[in-house]
Amino acid sequence: MIFITGDIHGEYDIHKFSTKNFPMQKLLSRSDYMIICGDFGLIWDGSNSDRWWLNWLEKKPWTTLFIDGNHENFDMLESYPLTEWNKTQVHQITKHIIHLCRGSVFELEGKRFFAFGGAESHDKKFRKKGISFWEQEMPNSQEMQHGRKTLEKFNWQTDIVITHSLPQHLQEKIDDNYKSNALTKYFDEIDTKLNFKFWFSGHYHMSASLDEKHFLVYHNILQLTDNSFTCIYSQAD
Length: 237
Ligand SMILES: [Fe+2]
Known about the structure:
The chain is of the alpha/beta class.
């Protein structure tokens, strides 16, 4: 089974994974996947709290896959060795917690995924570089080109897109104060060229459908089914 959820922000929004909130976990194994759409936040300062919650998550019966959001310690994240998982490059955080690098394409249960993390922090001016904000939150042009080249290899055909930020035309639908940036413009391009069924994003701290193909996830947990998905847990945002 494959599940998708939004930001966990370290220990702050991880409680959706408690047995009480997500009782179905008793039926899961390591070949079931929980995909987190960015703002993982458990690789933050290497504190006891980071270690305790990473250990808590590692002990869950599934395998966790996450993309980076904007609230990650990128220096620390990049210090993990790059390795190959499911024919794509990842950072192996623990045995069953995996960071999907930007531009990854991989297949699970017969579905093809495209994953591309990163986003621009709207509160950058209140944050400190290297302490609570890292410039790598915004993908560089090589990473974007890597995404294009990888999709080209797959003839721009996929099933599921996992991102933190949205394409600009959808970001504006939520709030026209969200300014465009290189990444939201890039996602506009991907959105036009790519053939996909569903696109899931975190970042906006809302659980919502924007149209028939684009969905925001936050406190909800979605389970992918053969041709669609179903919400198996939701909590007010
Ligand atoms: Fe967030």
